[in-house]
Each structure stands twice: as C-alpha cells, then as structure tokens.
Amino acid sequence: MAFGFNFGGDKSIIGKLASGKLKEEEKQALLTQLTQAAPGAEELVPLISLDDQGIASRAAQLFLNKADQGGVNALVEDMLTRGTGFATAMKVLQKCREELVVRMVEANLARPRPDVARKLWELILELPSSISDKYLER
C-alpha cells in the first residue's frame, strides 16, 4: 500500500491505472474518468512515475494544476525512495511553484536522512538555478 492505495487489488481509478494491465480503450476511458474525478495532487503521485507515458503525462498535467505543499512533499518522497520514474517526476517538480519546492527542500535538509541524502542533493542540483544556487554553498 502506497499513498493510501492498494496496488494489487485496488478498484479505484488510480489503482486500475497503476496496475498497468489495461487495454488501450480501457486506459483512455480511465484517464477521462481520472480527469473528471479531479483527484488531489498527492493522490496522483503514484501515476507520475509509471513507465506508461500516456498515464504519467496525464497525471503530471493534473498534478501541476492542483500542486500544493502536500503534493510536492509526496512527489519528492516518492522520488527519494522509488528507483524508477525519477526523470519524469523531476520534470514535474521543475514546473511546480518555486515557494512549494523551496519549502520542501528546507524541510528535507532540516531532517537529515543518510539513506536518501545523496539522492536529495542530486534532486536539489537538478532544480532551476533560481532555487539550487543558494544550496551550492552548503
């Protein structure tokens, strides 16, 4: 279970999309339902890092429309702990409002976690220079 979703047996729209076992028509219908359901940014995080670019792209668009602090924090936590989807999630993070990203960086730096420290610094250095430059001196 991640972000409140049981990926194995989840019958929600997000759960079905995350399962990856979909025919193209079913996937398109679920993407339409997802758009109409207007889930919060945090709920969309599991879809952003999927290998299916159609699903990941739609989730990214919806995420950016709803991006809030909780969503940005969840996205970064997913990026730091998951092995896949980093590049796609990074593109989304780079488009988020700067103040949300700065708050997330500050919060992560305030509570050092040795297990993800290297990945956090890689993430920080890939952010726009308007954000990352102030951390280069650390």
Give a quick set of tags describing it.
single chain; 138 residues; mainly alpha; 9 helices; elongated; disordered N terminus
What does it look like?
Helix content is 67%, strand content 0%. The protein has nine helices and no strands. Helix 1 packs antiparallel against helix 2, helix 3 (41-48) runs parallel beside helix 5 (69-81) and helix 5 packs across helix 7 (98-110). The protein starts with 12 loop residues before the first helix and ends in a 6-residue tail after the last helix.
Would you kindly provide a brief summary of this structure?
The protein is mainly α and 138 residues long. It contains 9 helices and no strands.
